[in-house]
Amino acid sequence: MSAASVSVQRLEFAYPSGARVLHGVDLEIAAGERVAVLGPNGAGKTTLMLHMNGIHLPQRGAVRIGDTEVTRSTVADARRRVGVVFQDPDDQLFLPTVGEDVAFGPRNHGIRGAELDARVDAALTRVGLERERDAAPGRLSLGQRRRAAIATILSMDVDVIVLDEPTSNLDPAARRDLTRTLAEVDATIVVVTHDLPYALELCPRSVILDGGRIVADGRTSDILADDGLLRAHGLELPWGFDPRLPRPVPAPGAETPLSRPSVGD
């Protein structure tokens, strides 16, 4: 897998209802970079995400993946290069077995035979689900289903992975598994999340999107340490969490301050 840059230039978008969601967004992401997109509900985060692989197309402005602008004529290429992992993995797992789901994307792009089998095996191994190839997706835990959804993207050999709220409803063990999976992926990664500690754990850089505009862009640790900035844009760290403290590297099976549930959870 390779990586590609993402360039969003003066992007504007409104839904058919007339609600204008993006107001001239500019965002440059280097190939191989890991960036979190933070912001309150209704800020336009998911709308921005859906422009990156052509689910939405710009009404004004432009989105480029590498050197290719995402347009009606290039949308098929954009969807081959940019994989989106939705918040609900059941939106991506709809076939009788996990292996069939992981094979779906490359099969649609003409991959067959031994190469297809190799892609499925490699993707499932990378997310630790090689033994679940013949399992029904509905029999997996939520954490396993989320990793299976990531495998459906890895099998496409994409350049960019965009994840929408990847830690939503995950227990600490599943969260650690997800972190290890993403840490080993050689791709540009964009994470749309309300989970501020996870943004710090995975992404050195974060942007805040609010009111359809980028209002902050910098090191995740610096952004999360700015209490006034967070309050101004409806963001809040968990009680007692200090982004300025060094974060331990989690050993397999170990809990960390980022994954440990608080009393009463």
Give a quick summary of the entry.
By secondary structure, the protein is an alpha/beta fold. It contains 9 helices and 10 strands.
Counting helices, strands and paired strands, the structural category is alpha/beta
- What is the helix/strand order? EEEHEEHEHHHEHEHEEHH
User: Could you name the CATH class of the domain at 6-87 and 160-232?
Assistant: Alpha Beta
CATH superfamily of the domain at 6-87 and 160-232: P-loop containing nucleotide triphosphate hydrolases
- First and last CA, distance: 38 Å
CATH topology of the domain at 6-87 and 160-232: Rossmann fold
Strand order of the largest sheet: 6-7-8-3-9-10
What's the architecture of the domain at 6-87 and 160-232, going by CATH?
Answer: 3-Layer(aba) Sandwich
Describe the structure.
This protein is an alpha/beta fold and 265 residues long. It has a domain of 155 residues: Rossmann fold, CATH 3.40.50.300. 31% of the residues lie in helices and 22% in strands. The protein contains 9 helices and 10 strands. The strands form 2 sheets. It has a 6-stranded mixed beta sheet, with helices on both faces. A 4-stranded antiparallel beta sheet has the order 2-1-4-5, with helices on one face. β4 and β5 form a beta hairpin. α3 packs parallel to α5 and α4 crosses α5. The radius of gyration is 18 Å and the shape is globular. The relative contact order is 0.17.
